[in-house]
Specification:
The chain is an all-alpha fold. The chain has one domain: Orthogonal Bundle (Farnesyl Diphosphate Synthase). The chain is built from 16 helices and 2 strands. It has a two-stranded antiparallel ribbon with strand order 1-2. The chain is globular. It starts with a helix and ends with a helix.
Amino acid sequence: MKDMYKKTLDEYCEKINHALLRLTENKPELQKIVCEAMEYSLSAGGKRIRPVLMLEFCKMCGGNSEKYIDLSCTVEMVHTYSLIHDDLPCMDNDDFRRGKPSCHKMFPEAIALLAGDALNTLPYEIISSKAIEGTISYESSVKLSNILSSSTGVMGMIGGQVVDIEAEHRKITIDELNYLQILKTGALIKAACKMGCILGQKPEKIPFAEKYADALGRAFQIVDDILDVTGSFEELGKPIGSDSKQDKSTYISLMGLEKSKDEAEKLTNEAISILDNFENSDFLKELTMELLTRKK
């Protein structure tokens, strides 16, 4: 199973990476620098978890995921935009991302800001274009756009980032931290899973996708917090201990290392059990477990 899982994941990532570069290959001369900044951040690496989730949920719902590689890139673009902005001096002020200089260290800060903005708008151009060309219906286009935009806005990722900023320099409760991470980390993961159900034309499966995403999103963030304490720059490709330096509450600071590990394992097992509501879920169960034991 491990070999088949690795082969499938590698194939997904290769197709997604190729599509990301193709979708941003047009570089008009006068706007070339911002296009290069977009491409730089998109090609800097990453696990491509969100687009893989979208494609797998589509597949588990009986859809042809091969048709929707470009659409899966939309969530990766939004994710990458958020990382560019997170690293800016006015936010987390991080010089490195995925082992490479952050976008604002390779390009002027204003260009990095605009590259993030561009990666936040391009997804909706892609979604609407797929409806115009007939790859998806107009109804599906509206549903996908609604899911992605709402997961990114004030009641989604951006809202979570605001709560995170407001929580700096004070100790928050575990309930507040869960709420923060459900928005900041979990919202885009949930969007990818729900969008896959729409593409697979099984909207009735969305409640299961949401429950899976909630469990996975929290487990994913807890592991991130663990790695921020136990990992290394070489493994993670970014500074270690940045949460502590910014005086942020984390699962480690509130629960301790061992309890955090136990909670991440519990949530992972919960996510895996939810996948029993889908056909052909072996690959995603393997991926879910792999995310628990990752080193970066």
